[in-house]
Amino acid sequence: SPRAGVTYYALRPRKGIFSGTRVLFNYGDAVREPTLTDEFGSLYHVLGVRGYQSDAAQLGISPLGAPTARTYEGGVQQNFFSERLVFRVNYFHNQFGRQIEYVGGHILPNLIPNLTADEKLVLEAALGYYYTSDYGLAVNTEAFRAQGIETTVESGIGRSIFLRGGYTYLDGVVQRSFSSDNEALLGGYAPTYNGIPLGALSPLKGARPFRRPPHTGFFTATYAAHRFTGVFTSSFASRSDDSTYLEYADADGGNSLLLPNRNLDHGYAKLDLGGSYKLLSWVSIYAQGENLTNNLHIAPIGYRSLPFNFRTGLRVEWGKGTSH
Fold first, then answer.
1. With bands split at pLDDT 50, 70 and 90, how would you rate the model's confidence at 185?
2. Which residues contact 250 (CB under 8 A, 6 or more apart)?
3. SS3 317
4. Hey, CA dihedral for 175, 178, 181, 184, is it positive or negative?
5. Which of 118, 212, 220, 223 is the most exposed place for a label (fewest CB within 10 A)?
6. Residue 300 clears pLDDT 70, i.e. is over it
7. Is the pLDDT of residue 184 over 50?
8. How far apart are CA 60 and CA 57, in angstroms?
9. Are the beta carbons of 220 and 231 closer than 8 angstroms?
């Protein structure tokens, strides 16, 4: 997993309005080993142990491998007013390959060509809970490119207030997916009333990856003076693509419950406020309120966010080490 980074000071840190310019570039190449659950629950493993190795080869399904990532990043950091204000802008270009997707066991018999009705019944019985519960089987079939711009600004006001904010634009494009690779084999999904092509199990080629909003941002403010510390944090996300995963799930065994993937997940804003007060040198009381606006978003589908919630407690420190 090689890494490389280069930094060059075009303008060395100094006092003044323009108090330092730094140019940077980073490169990384990495793999992530799949979990044992993914390996033993892979589509290749399930087909192989049931005697369908040749069908796996015909579908282009190989043993589960490690997903890969190759990242490039370059940008500029500009300091202002003797480094009291820092602005950063980075361009990134990431390539993700052999990503793991999950194919529903319920449609697996439909993926294997030339099966008779009796052979399908045998395969359904052999799949067991993978078929009856429509359990996902892992495959290395997704690849996508993600590029964009990331900006951050941070500044301090006096000795007590520190502000930081940022915005990221993400342009993600799917280059390969299981749904696209096997669309012809499946005969295509039945269109919705508006005729839009759907990716039921994974995004289609040329679309955006699921659950990755193109616009995200954040803002934080910290106040620290004497015994009191207060922190305000906020995060924002635009709408993103997703699926209802309800293929062949309506009363007629069709796809009428599917919805277009585009912007299916709603955007949201999450605001949090917390603080702590040091009662003694070794004990503090703290309180934290999350989701102040009670924004009930669901990202991804099926995982509902917590409404407004509040917690409080004591923090105890001991030992001679310096606390941070």
1. very low
2. 256, 257
3. coil
4. negative
5. 118
6. no
7. no
8. 5
9. yes
CA 4 to chain centre: 24
CA distance 272 to 161: 17
Rounded to an integer, what distance in angstroms lies between the CA atom of residue 306 and that of residue 192?
A: 32
How many angstroms separate the CA atoms of 19 and 82, rounded?
Answer: 5
- Tokens 């840190």 — which residue? 13
Task: Give the residue from 108, 131, 87, 95 showing the smallest Cα distance to 43.
Answer: 108
Q: Identify the pLDDT of residue 244.
A: 86
Condensed to tens digits (0 to 9), the pLDDT of residues 73-84 reads 999 999 999 889
- N residues, the chain: 324
- Here the tokens at position 173 are 């494009």
Concatenating the DSSP letter of every residue in 79-104 gives EETTTTEEEEEEEEEEEEEEEEEEEE
At CA 95, angle to CA 94 and CA 98, rounded to 5?
A: 145
pLDDT digits (tens, 9 = 90+) for 39-62: 998 988 988 888 888 877 877 778
For 85, the token pair is 């204000």
The whole-angstrom separation of Cα 175 and Cα 96 is 10
Higher pLDDT pick, 272 / 226: 272
